[in-house]
Amino acid sequence: MKGLDAILEEHPFFAGFAPPHMQLIAGCARNRRFDEGEYLFHEGDPADEFFLIRHGRVALDITPPGRDPIVFETLGPGEIVGASWLVPPYRWMFDARALEVVRAIGIDAACLRGKCDADHDLGYQMMMRFLPILVKRLHATRLQILDVYGRH
Amino acid sequence: MAATDPAVAADPFLPALYRVARTRRELADTVTLELLPLEGVRPDFAPGQFNMLYAFGVGEAAISISGDAAEGAAFVHTVRNVGAVSGALARMRPGATLGLRGPFGTGWPVAAAEGADVVIVAGGLGLAPLRPAIRHILNHRRRYGRVVLLFGSRNPGEMLFRRELERWRQRLDVEIGVTVDHADPSWRGNVGVVPSLIRHASFDPHEAVAFVCGPEVMMRFTATALLAAGMGGERIWLSMERNMKCAIGLCGHCQFGPTFICKDGPVMRHDVIGGLLSVREI
């Protein structure tokens, strides 16, 4: 059975990560499993753990008052669920629901923030990996907001 | 097939008369029309070309051909009701007559793409102009490498050619990726913009050819994602849309930098026009 270190190394997010940093991350990580329909987290919950998907797909949704939830993104293997753990007030801004059985690595956010504070090289490496993801999602959100398939 | 009427070939401004043979409602505002010539047979066309359809007393609009070039005697057009002319066309019933000029413009390079992987990226109604190319490629499947079709729409209820997509998905020799911009929780497919599907698709970016059609903003984002995947601009083809009037490069309504969309397009290479896509004044 593979250890967490080996599983983390195989995840695309950590490609090229230095072994000492990988060990620091592994100290904050644990294996997680979610059944179909189970929530990884709910809007408003403390963002105390984020997830690296290994298998399965996750739907991100927001529920407007008095309406059904709206799914605005789905994520799959190799992708990251959640960035709200990076910035105060460390609260989730949406729900995350398993569309099928999901196997993921959960990273304890407070643990990782503490290690990034103590080791700025680690913090820089984490930011270098998170920032492109955030920028891509920002671009995608802009495209969704434009509603390009609507009647114009 | 031969041209309908020598006079039509001689005078590109003279519409030929066509009859609506059949209609099929695709979406609440979108209809597919099958058009048969009142005289002769319909001209040949290349996948990606368009016709000028003339609703008498209302006006003329450029509409891409959405049917299979090798199948049937009709021109097939899928029309979305977004204005006076398209609305009049979308309301036509079987038996109605209309004027038709065409076919015009450049087509998808389906012959040049033989031997290569083909990545087809469609957004919304953009699947219609790609449908003849998809049909052609699937009818000659052995001539191509891997075939990937990525399709994005607004939501699951506004997905064009849904049954046909499901049929294509059942084939084992085509990779199909479908996504919607947003959905209710009953939707079990992908949610997100169509360019986000590109990084998960299986193709060799150095050997593949991409056909892209959809709203221009979607095509810009898609081209950026294809370039980021390693594909050269000379292998990316976009179907452009502008206000076409004469359809033969005379009036200038569809001028796009040094080119005319009606004559030099609508299917154009990204390395030729990519630099113009972000120029607001064009």
Present the secondary structure layout:
The complex is a heterodimer of chains A (152) and B (282).
Chain A: H1 4-10, H2 19-26, E1 29-34, E2 39-41, E3 49-55, E4 58-62, E5 70-75, E6 80-81, E7 95-98, E8 102-108, H3 109-118, H4 120-146
Antiparallel strand pairs in A: 1-8, 2-7, 3-6, 3-8, 4-5, 4-7
Chain B: H1 6-10, E1 16-27, E2 30-37, E3 50-55, E4 59-64, E5 75-80, H2 84-90, E6 97-104, E7 118-123, H3 127-139, E8 147-153, H4 162-170, E9 175-180, E10 190-191, E11 209-213, H5 216-228, E12 236-239, E13 255-256, E14 259-260, H6 261-264, E15 267-269, H7 270-273
Parallel strand pairs in B: 7-8, 7-11, 8-9, 9-10, 11-12
Antiparallel strand pairs in B: 1-2, 1-6, 2-5, 3-4, 3-6, 12-15, 13-14
Could you explain how this protein is built, in words?
Chain A has a single domain, classed as Sandwich (Jelly Rolls), CATH 2.60.120.10. Chain A contains four helices and eight strands, in the order ααββββββββαα. The longest helix of chain A is centred in the last third of the chain and has 27 residues. By secondary structure, chain A is of the alpha+beta class. In chain A, strands 1-8-3-6 form a four-stranded antiparallel sheet. Chain A has a four-stranded antiparallel sheet with strand order 2-7-4-5, with no helix packed on it. Chain A is globular and about 50 Å long. Chain B is globular and about 50 Å long. Chain B is of the alpha/beta class and 282 residues long. In chain B, the strands form three sheets. Chain B has a seven-stranded mixed sheet, sandwiched between helices. Chain B has a six-stranded antiparallel sheet with strand order 4-3-6-1-2-5. In chain B, strands 13-14 form a two-stranded antiparallel sheet. Chain B has two domains: 99 residues, Translation factors (Elongation Factor Tu (Ef-tu), domain 3); 114 residues, Nucleotide-binding domain of ferredoxin-NADP reductase (FNR) module (Rossmann fold). In chain B, helix 3 links the parallel strand 7 and strand 8. The N terminus of chain B is likely disordered. Classes of the chains: A alpha+beta (152), B alpha/beta (282). Chains A and B meet through strand 4, strand 5 and helix 4 of A and strand 10 and helix 5 of B.
